[in-house]
Specification:
Order of helices and strands: EHEHEEH
CATH architecture: 3-Layer(aba) Sandwich
Number of strands: 4
CATH class: Alpha Beta
CATH topology: Glutaredoxin
């Protein structure tokens, strides 16, 4: 499962979200969301560093990811 750790008003978060919403469905995957400011654990782990892409709860990309990198992440463990 992929989750995007984000915060409102973050333009980098919006950019990563757009890519994820375009690419994940092509591979039969969906996206969940976690608000970094609403979760003390996430805030402690990532602070101001958002967006963070989690796969099965583990960070696999921070701030930016290209489509090529994302596809590699998807194929890594299917």
């Amino acid at each position: 499962m992929f989750e995007l750790v984000t915060r409102p008003g973050c333009h980098l978060c919006d950019e990563m979200e757009a890519l994820l919403l375009r690419v994940l469905p092509q591979h039969g995957l969906s996206l969940g969301y976690r608000d970094v400011d609403a979760d003390a654990d996430l805030l402690g782990r990532f602070g101001e560093v958002v967006p963070v892409l989690l796969r099965d709860g583990k960070p696999v990309a921070k701030v930016r990811v290209t489509e090529t990198q994302l596809v590699r992440l998807i194929r890594r463990r299917r």
